[in-house]
Amino acid sequence: MKKDIRILGKKKITLSEIEKFYAMEDYKKLYNTINELINDGIIAVVKSSKSNGKSPALRTAYRVMPIVEDNAALINELLYTMDLKLDTSYYLRNINMYKADRADVLKLNAYFLRHGDKLKNRISINERSFEIWGREKFLSKDGGTRILKNLGISEEFLNYYATATPLAYYSNSKQTPQKVLILENKDTFYSMRKHLLAGSKAILKTDISTLVYGGGKNIYKSFGDFDICVEPYVADANNTILYFGDLDYEGIIIYELLTREFAGEHTLKPFIEGYTAMIDKYLKMDIPLPKTKAGQNRNISELFLREFNEEYRKAIMDILEREEYIPQEILNIGDF
C-alpha cells in the first residue's frame, strides 16, 4: 500500500515532489502511480501546468485533493440509535462537534434507554452527573449543560437540584409559628446568638426564636433551597421571617431579591426595630458615617422603604443620598 501523499499537508504539488516522495527512479512506475492517484481522487491535474516533454507525457503540477470523510455511520447512529427524547438535529448539522462530544452523548443516550426511570427521583446535580457520566462535576463545571442544550434537553428534565452552602442558624425554640431573623453579617449573628444564649427571649423588644446567618451577597445561593436547608420548624409557612442587614444600597437590594425569592412560600419583612435602632444610635452618637462602597447598585425600589414611617423613611433616604451608609455592626450586644 502506497504512502498517502496528503500527509505532506500541501494543496499543490509538483511532479518532481511526487517522484521524490515515492522515491521512484523508474519513469514507467512514476507514470502509473500518477494515474492511480488521479483515478483514486487523491490528486488532480493543474490544467495550466506544462507537460514534462516525455512519452507518455505527464503534467508538471497537481492539486492535492482534500480527504472526504465518510460520516454515514455516525449519521445513521444519530438517526436510528438515539432515544427519542434526544433532539439530534444540532449534531446532524455539525457532525464534527458530534465526533468531539460523541462519548458523552452516548453515555446520556444509554442512561435514557436503560435507566430513564431513575429520573423520577430528584437528586443533587453532582449525584445526577455521576449517575449518567461517571463524573460528578460534569454538569456543573465540565460542559455537561452544553451537551444538554445541543440535544434539546432541559436541566429541569434531568430532575436535579443545585446544592447551596449549608445555612448556619441558631434556635432557642422549636415552637411554631415563630419569628425567624435573617442577618446579613457574621458579627451581628454571633452577638445576637450570645444574647439569646444568655437567656433572653427578645432582641430589641421583639421575640425572636431563630437567627439565620445570611453571609452578605452569598445569601442568594443558600436561600434558593431554604426549605431543605433548615429544619421544618424554621421553614414553617406560618412563621414570620424578618431580614436585617447593613443600611446601604446593597443591603436593601439583598432584601428586595430575597423577598422575590420567598414569594409564594414565605412573607419576608425588614426587621424594623433593628433598622430604627441603628438610625437612632447614629443620630445620638452624632458620628460621621462611612462612605458608600464604590460600584454598588443603586437601583432600589420602594419595597423596603415603604415598610417604614415617614420619619425613618426620610432619614434613610438622607443617608443614602449623601452616599453614606450605616453598618449593622453599629449595634452590639449591649444594645439588644
Please specify the SSE layout and strand pairing.
Layout: E1 12-14, H1 15-21, H2 27-39, E2 43-45, E3 61-64, H3 72-80, H4 89-93, H5 95-115, E4 123-124, H6 125-133, H7 144-150, E5 160-161, E6 168-171, E7 179-183, H8 186-197, E8 202-203, E9 206-207, E10 210-213, H9 219-223, H10 226-229, E11 240-244, H11 249-262, E12 268-270, H12 272-285, H13 310-321
Parallel strand pairs: 4-5, 7-10, 7-11, 11-12
Antiparallel strand pairs: 1-3, 2-3, 6-10, 8-9
Strand order in the largest sheet: 6-10-7-11-12
**Structural class, please?**
alpha/beta
Largest sheet: 5 strands, mixed
Question: How far apart are the first and last residues' alpha carbons, in Å?
Answer: 90 Å
Q: What is the number of domains?
A: 3
Low-confidence stretches: none
Can you write the helix and strand succession as a string? EHHEEHHHEHHEEEHEEEHHEHEHH
Shape descriptor reads elongated
Protein name: Wadjet protein JetD C-terminal domain-containing protein
InterPro entries: JetD_C
Domain Wadjet protein JetD C-terminal: 167-332
Pfam families: JetD_C
